[in-house]
TrEMBL record:
One of its GO terms (cellular component) is cytosol. It comes from the Bacteria. The record marks 165, 214 as: Could be important to modulate the pK values of the two catalytic cysteine residues. Pathway: Amino-acid biosynthesis; L-lysine biosynthesis via DAP pathway; DL-2,6-diaminopimelate from LL-2,6-diaminopimelate: step 1/1. This is Diaminopimelate epimerase. It comes from Salicibibacter cibi. Substrate binds at residues 6, 60, 70-71, 163, 196, 214-215, 224-225.
Length: 283
């Protein structure tokens, strides 16, 4: 399935036996490989949960496990609803980053066309991203901070949406040097768990251009948590406002994100698409 071209191989753990825990990271890398596997940005498990209606586990294409995935949440929602693992159009999903609430929107045939997810409250303190800082800085936000990495000064805003994001404002995405700056920031010592790296350009009060270097997967067509982090960063830097529905233009298509002033939650709405189903045989 994919959300705006951010594609994962989804395994139905309600129905099928799963490989051993220690096998999962390698399996993710294997299936993600476009030459020797299937080709994807990683592997997602759809599982029963003891604390929510469904549980999602996300593995990046390098085998690392992530705490959250916005595009994955929409696809898991579509799958769980269409396979009747949930009874209602509103239900909860457990992730390593916490429990989120999801709502599916149906087309005339009763298929899920779009999904809205309450992505929760963004965490901004350095210690919650997590991002290193001297002295008391761990308790502070990193909004428009300048940090020196490999002798070069970079200015960005750090946001956790359950997973870490460093958001850079650029005049034009074409000038962003994603392939060099992305991996450098992803693996900088400043981020003890690594980070996803977003490059954004504000077009007007309700539209943002967006590109991403994902931790553990590299350049992808879209990142749902990254789009949420981008809107939070845009609001915090005075480029857009809370409560405004922002259209984020990602390489794979658009997401609608709004950050509510009522409860501080970030909401994401977008599509989820099933490409094909199949059986993966291991040699
Ligand atoms: N594509 C995702 C995020 C996947 C995990 C990320 N690469 C990480 O390591 O945190 C999304 O849509 O949010």
């Amino acid at each position: 399935m994919h959300g705006l071209g951010n594609s994962y191989i989804y395994v139905d753990g309600f129905r099928d036996p799963l490989p051993n825990e220690e096998r999962l990271p390698n399996l993710a890398s294997e299936v993600a490989n476009p030459y020797t596997g299937i080709g994807s940005d990683g592997l997602i498990l759809i599982l029963p949960s003891n604390v929510a209606d469904v549980r999602m586990r996300v593995f990046n294409s390098d085998g690392s496990e992530a705490k959250n995935c916005g595009n994955g949440l929409r696809c898991v929602s579509k799958y769980a609803y269409e396979h009747q693992y949930v009874e209602h159009e509103n239900f909860s999903i457990e992730t390593l980053g916490g429990i989120v609430e999801s709502q599916v929107h149906l087309d005339e045939e009763g298929k899920v066309s779009e999904v809205t997810v309450d992505m929760g409250v963004p965490r901004l303190k350095r210690k919650d991203v997590p991002m290193r800082g001297k002295g008391g800085a761990l308790e502070e936000n990193a909004i428009g901070v300048t940090e020196t990495i490999n002798g070069i000064d970079y200015t960005f805003t750090a946001v956790s949406m359950g997973n870490p994001h460093a958001v850079f404002f650029v005049d034009k995405l074409a000038d962003a040097m994603i392939e060099t700056v992305g991996p450098l920031i992803e693996k900088a010592d400043l981020f003890p768990d690594g980070t996803n790296v977003e490059f954004i350009s504000t077009l007007n009060a309700s539209e943002i251009d967006f590109a991403v270097w994902e931790r553990g997967s590299g350049i992808t067509q879209a990142c749902g948590t990254g789009a949420c982090a981008a809107v939070v960063a845009a609001v915090l830097n005075g480029e857009t406002k809370k409560d405004e529905a922002i259209t984020v233009h990602l390489p794979g298509g658009d997401l609608t994100i709004h950050w509510s002033s009522k409860d501080d939650h970030v909401w994401m709405k977008g599509t989820a698409v099933t490409v094909c189903t199949g059986i993966y045989f291991q040699a």
